[in-house]
Design a protein that fits this description.
NAD(P)-bd_dom_sf; L-rhamnose-1-dehydrogenase; 7 strands; seven-stranded parallel β-sheet; SDR_fam
Length: about 260
Amino acid sequence: MSGLLAGRVAAITGGVTGIGRAIALEYLKQGACVSVNHFEDEKSAEQFKSMEREAVEGAKLIAVPGDISKQETATRLVEETVRAYGKLDVFVSNAGICQFAEFLDITQDLFESHVSTNLHGAFYATQAAARQMAKQGNGGSIIGISSISALVGGAQQTHYTPTKAGVLSLMQSCACALGKYGIRCNALLPGTIRTQLNEKDLANEEKRKYMEGRIPLGRTGVPDDLAGPAVFLASDLSKYVNGAQLLVDGGLFVNLQ
């Protein structure tokens, strides 16, 4: 199979919905072999089956279910990927949760669940991927899905924005730590993207129109808007891009007033 990622192997966390799903499907189109991590539940299993049906003919795609906040899941994701395809070239830390809540009402459980999935999960999975890439000795690309929320505040996101700032910082520090192995680490910062995480919030027509009015391109994003940038960072087109943060927000950040 030809494409910008032909012959490469990629693993993606949170890979059966939203941004992760869009990236996985585009990676398959570009010739990569892909493994995706998802929740261990029937709904997620069905979403993976629908991915298999949607994928390009002849695509190589496997699933590794598990709770990505647990270190053993990250280890197993890498091990199963290597067992299936022989190596790991690209890793995308995408899994994340966001439940809007008032700061004064946030419980310990709600806060810790966001930190565990969004930050602990990103750390463990990135470390597992990096260990494999370093062992292989031929470099690699690690991409952390952060958020515009890493750069701005959110009144109902006080438990979420710190985790996304953490993912951005993790990629920056890993770029310093892993450059000697030829491993590049970069972050994508989505703006307002219509996914399962914010569909309820954007169902409010007044709020949706307000958001669209703040975005210079005049629309909220869709998951597929992240796929191209993720291919760029995974491919040789970005072979000297390391420690970077790429906003994918339709111009929202530069238009904030």
